[in-house]
Amino acid sequence: MKLTKVLSAAALAAVISFSVPACKSGPKDAEIKAAIEEKFKGNADMTGMTVDVKDGVATIGGVCKDDACKASCEKATAEVKGVKSVTNNCTIAPPPPPPPASLTTVLDAATQQKVKDGIKDIAGVTVTFDGDKAVFAGTVSKENRMKIMQMLGSAKVKSDVSKLVDKK
User: Least packed by Cβ within 10 Å: which of 29, 85, 112, 155?
Assistant: First the structure.
């Protein structure tokens, strides 16, 4: 009988010793996630980042501006109490595309304005600038075509008038 009581007490002590530490485990996944999200809110580079936490493993995602931002997101996540490891699924944003070559000009703003002013009273004619040329389009009378050509000569600007159509 004494042996049964001793074994029962030992078994009870073993159960208690294993269950008490389990009750005192670290923060819950929801608390960890909230703490990580709070860190992300405090940094403008980390806005729009996502986080999921399962069993202390944090998975982060979103678009970062560069590798340094990606590393910073991972470091900030790893510093949160309760995070066991970090899976970094963040991507780097591609660089913006260069402007199309046809939309760039070497003509200074003053020259462009002089050309625009020269055609402002000519209805139906538009001008764009491509490289070192003024490109005209629209329908024009012979008289107005002559005005455009004289203005271009005085402004010393190369031109493309192939899209100008003469009025009939």
Answer: 85
